Amino acid sequence: MRFIFLISLFFIHLVNHAQDSLGHDFSEESAKRAVFNIVRYSGLPPNFVTRENTSIKTAIAFIQKDQRIIEYNPEFLSRISNKSETDWAAISILAHEIGHHLMGHTLNPRKYGPGDELECDRYSGFILAKMGATLDEALVAISIAGLEQASKTHPEKTARVQAITLGYKSAMSLDASPPLELLEDQFEYTHKIRFDGDPNTYYFTSNMTIVWLDEYAQAIEFGRVEIHPKSDYTFKFQFNEAWFHVDLASGIWSITNYGVFMKIGRCDAL
């Protein structure tokens, strides 16, 4: 009897262990909540339709009747979540599919290629970092489901791991950087200046300066604005040690060495 009792306890232990290993289903509620949070961390409104589809193998993004749709196989997401022992695996897959929409790939699905997949892998890594996942958690889905050999549409696992890692590290480096100063906190722009033959745009500011914005969005001062005493012009300004006049129709005029006025651009109020 004691032997039978021990065998029964052992059998119950095996059943409980098997049930624990099955984990939980990645439900429709979980999928929709994940998509909502992914999009929210992207700073966009949650305008995706998220739904189950047991006829597909994994997950897919496509457009149907002007709606952006994410479909997924619930058994696949549940299986990969249980195998990885974390919901981050399913979330990263959904983030990848959202990336296809945001990158514009779903506008022409026939042109999907390995580069498109790597773009979405990078986006997935970036978003999961923003959502609080570790790098290992961001990589767990591709570690389990990634292909060892590349196909016509999907890169090999090694390349995809690298793309996710780059996206993750990019997000982390942004978080570690000091916050940028907003230009609006320094001054307001009042006018936009364009000179003929010059592709750059310049601005008048509320503190009567002329600035140009470099590639780091930093304002570099070039000169100062001064009200013109003549009624024919609204004001004059100095730029590169030369003076220019702005007429009532927003035209910019300069004076040649021979004393002749020449129209050289526009100065439009903002």
Can you characterise this structure?
With 270 residues, this protein is an alpha+beta fold. 41% of the residues lie in helices and 26% in strands. The protein is built from seven helices and eleven strands. The strands form two sheets. Strands 4-5-6-7-8-9-10-11 form an eight-stranded antiparallel β-barrel. A three-stranded mixed β-sheet has the order 1-3-2.
Can you lay out the helices and strands and say which pair or pack?
Blueprint (H helix, E strand, L loop, with lengths): L1 H21 L5 H14 L6 E5 L6 E6 L2 E6 L1 H11 L3 H15 L11 H18 L3 H11 L11 H20 L12 E7 L6 E4 L3 E5 L5 E9 L5 E7 L2 E6 L3 E5 L5 E9 L1
Parallel strand pairs: 1-3
Antiparallel strand pairs: 2-3, 4-5, 4-11, 5-6, 6-7, 7-8, 8-9, 9-10, 10-11
Task: Give the structure's gist in a few sentences.
The protein is of the alpha+beta class and 270 residues long. It has helices at residues 2-22, 28-41, 74-84, 88-102, 114-131, 135-145, 157-176, and strands spanning 48-52, 59-64, 67-72, 189-195, 202-205, 209-213, 219-227, 233-239, 242-247, 251-255, 261-269. The strands form two sheets. It has an eight-stranded antiparallel beta barrel with strand order 4-5-6-7-8-9-10-11. The protein has a three-stranded mixed beta sheet with strand order 1-3-2.
Main attributes of the structure:
270 residues; alpha+beta; three-stranded mixed sheet; 7 helices
State the major sheet: 8 strands, antiparallel, barrel
Rg:
30 Å
The figure for the number of domains is 2
Tally the helices: what do you get?
Answer: 7
Low-pLDDT ranges: 1-22
